[in-house]
Design a protein that fits this description.
Layout (H helix, E strand, L loop, with lengths): L10 H10 L4 H8 L3 H9 L6 H11 L19 E2 L13 H23 L17 H12 L3 H6 L3 H14 L3 E5 L9 E4 L6 E5 L4 H17 L3 E3 L10 H17 L2 H4 L11 H12 L3 H10 L5 H16 L10 H9 L1 H12 L5 H8 L6 H10 L2
Parallel strand pairs: 1-5, 2-4
Antiparallel strand pairs: 3-4, 3-5
Length: 385
Amino acid sequence: MSKSIKGLVTPSVLKWARDTAKMDLEEVSRRMKKTEEEILQWENGEEQPTFAQLKNIASIYRRPLAIFYLPEPPEEHVPLQDFRHLAAHEPAEWSSELAFWIRRMQMQQEWLREYLRLQEFLPLQFIGESNLNEAMLDIAKKIRSTLNIDTIEQISCKIPRVALNYWIAQAEQVGINVCQKGSIELDEARGFVLVDEYAPFIYINAKDSYAGRLFTLVHELAHIWLNLPGISNMNIPERSRRREEQIERFCNQVAGLALVPTKDLKPCWKPQSYSALLEHVDDIAKKFCVSGPVIARRLKDIGKIQIEEYQNLLRTYNIRYQNLPPRSAGGDGIRNILYQNGLLLVRTALDAISSGSVLASEVAGILNSKVNNFPKLRGILDSSY
């Protein structure tokens, strides 16, 4: 495997990470609560940091843990295309947290790609299968067909959390790894996608509601079908000449068509049974396990409501969402390892250990987890079937 991860920390990578983080020995010593001499001993290869110390270093330098096991400092990846819509007063630069998660997932993707190629897996045929000149409905149908998504199954989920898990499971079945983490601000990014013909990765911001995460997932699937990797925040104006924002609107509409097919939506439209439009839209959204704005947009697109009604609904939903309390990360520690890395990656990595293809220490770096967590991770994965 190219740039295979070793069992020992590489001193030159430690020094490179400190240099690129623009930190002097005094600052690292203070934050690590170690002497400058001890830090230098790690960087000179005279001593090795413990796993706990290495995790602390990774956090301080904002680097993926696995990077320190590489045989040499890596080449920095080309930045992703930025599809986000930012207000005029907001900086265009990425936060350190967003940059960290992009780097971490790029490294995990590189490992998974090389492993799958060595195991003689074939490239995924749906990567870049579509283009922006294709009808959005056709792309939505391709996504649903490839993932084997069934509307009845989606509706039977009853709540967005279960529907999200259903879509993720179907995506993983076809080779797409889905990671969920809530350390990036929602306004900065609701998701991003790293497209690859062997190992596509999707990041979903876990600070979002489950219905919001579901929409982000399907939006990023559209990016995969178009072979357009990048970062999204979904705050896209209705009219814009900026190409990136036009692409985002395109992917939003594909996502709406995939989540709520017209043939399934039309029979649900029974305004005569409701005293208020908002109540009816909420009920339909609940049925499909999506958000109200998704249904409102779909109803507008198929001509069931007027543009003024649609805009009034959006204003109501914006006020409602602004008043929602912030979501807490929470969760079980072991399960968080699964969600943050993606079940497909974790399962593949643990299988690789079992087959003797890779060392447990290599996988520990890839998953940012202690080796003694692996039996627990395997237990949860096995119990999910």
